[in-house]
Each structure stands twice: as C-alpha cells, then as structure tokens.
Amino acid sequence: MAKREDIFYTLLKKVASQVVEASEEYVSIMEDFPASMPRIPRMKVHEMTTDELVADIMKRLYTSFITPFEREDISDLALRLDDVVDLMEAVSMRLDLFQVDHMRPEAVEMAILTNKAIVELQQMIELLPNYKKDDRVMHHAINVSRVEDGADRVYQNAVRRLFAEEEGGKEVVTWLRIFDRMESCLNACDSAAGVVRSVVMKSA
After folding, report:
1. Torsion of CA 22, 27, 29, 35, to 10 degrees
2. Per-residue model confidence (pLDDT) at position 203
3. In this structure, what DSSP letter does residue 67 have?
4. Which residue in 38, 54, 177 sits closest to 104, CA to CA?
5. pLDDT single digits (tens) 40-79
6. Residue 22 sits in a domain of what CATH number?
7. Residues 12, 74 contacting (CB under 8 angstroms)
8. Distance of CA 50 to the CA centre of its chain
C-alpha cells in the first residue's frame, strides 16, 4: 500500500495550482489589453482563493505536532506564493486605477516570464515530497532564479525605453509604478523558490 502524502505537501500543491491559474489570467489580461479590462476583477477572485488556501495551511501549522520540514519554511513558502498572486492582482488593478489605455510590449513580456517562473515553481512543488532524493527539485528552484534574472533585463530595457520615448508626466509615473510591481512579482517568485533552495541545502 502506497504511503499517504503529507497534508502539507497536498495543500502546497493546491496553492501552486491556483497560482498557475492566476498567472494564466494575468498573461491573458496583459496580452489582450485594453479589450481585457472587464476580466481584471477575476484576479481578485484568484487572490481570495489563494488567501483561503494559505490560511488553511497556517491553521494546520498551529495544530500539527509533526511537519515534513521546518514549520517556518512551510509558512514562508506558502506566504511567498500568496505574495505572488497579491502582486499580480495589484498590477492588474493598476491598469484600471491609473486609467491605462494601451499596453507596453515589455509588460506583456514580463507577464509571460512571470508565468514561466510560476510553472517552474509548480513543478518544484510537485516534486517537493521527495526533495531529499530528487535533484529536480533544486533544478526547478534554480530555474526560477534564471527566469527572474532575464526579467530584470526586460525591466531595465522597459524603463530605459520609457524615459527615451516619453517626456515625463502621467505616462512615465504610471508605467514606472506598474513595471515596479511587475518586477516585485518576479522577485516574489524567486523568494518562494529561495525557501525551497534553503530547505534542500539544509538537508544535504
């Protein structure tokens, strides 16, 4: 009879799946903007669903005597994943709040890279139950960092082009704030992967 999976692995996998769904919506909003404006509220639904899943993990951490790895690491990983969805929702909402009327190509590229990083996170978490023996866990965790490094270059080019093409004012302020949030989202992906990199290293 197969050993039953620890509940924390199961819950983290559910969170990761939800984050992937949110990232697909996020990319769709960016790619289809401004026609996608009516879909922006869907990101709030993803954010609330993720909050509920993470709250369940936190509640169980308080009542569980045994956890598959350190409870602080489980908490940090869940919260970093939650941060990713919070930031995607924040970026999407700013398109509406700042009355953006067109999309910049670098924003689409950064959203696609965010989805790529999140898919790596999901693959990492799917393999997490066997992190002491499966080298692929660290492989995916490192790949998230590589994606984030690539996104940094896109961010820098985006800001450089923004200042080269615009003469200040609302356009520059608006897009600087959006790009900064998009970069923060990718940083949050790497922070989540960093928790797992630390877990693996501590077990080595």
Report:
1. -150
2. 87
3. -
4. 177
5. 999 999 999 999 999 999 999 999 889 999 999 999 999 9
6. 1.20.58.220
7. yes
8. 11
Question: Tell me: the pLDDT tens digits for 93-118?
Answer: 999 999 999 999 999 999 999 999 99
Question: Is pLDDT at 167 greater than 70 in this prediction?
Answer: no
Alpha-carbon gap, residue 173 to 162, rounded angstroms: 10
| Rounded distance between C-alpha atoms, residue 145 and residue 133, angstroms | 21
39 falls within a domain: yes
1 lies in a domain? no
Which CA distances in Å does 25 have to 33, 46, 47, 64, 71?
Answer: 12, 9, 12, 34, 31
Residue 15 parent element (H or E): helix 7-32
Listed as own residue / partner, the contacts of 160-169 with beta carbons closer than 8 Å and 24 or more positions apart are 161/106, 162/104
**120, two tokens:** 């790596």
User: 43 with 26: CB under 8 angstroms?
Assistant: yes
Range of the domain at 145: 7-203
Residue found under tokens 């139950």: 129
Matching residue, tokens 């709250």: 55
Identify whether 2 is part of a domain.
no
Q: What are the structure tokens assigned to 175, written together? A: 């897009």
Percent of the chain with pLDDT over 70: 97
Alpha carbon 2 to chain centroid, angstroms? 32
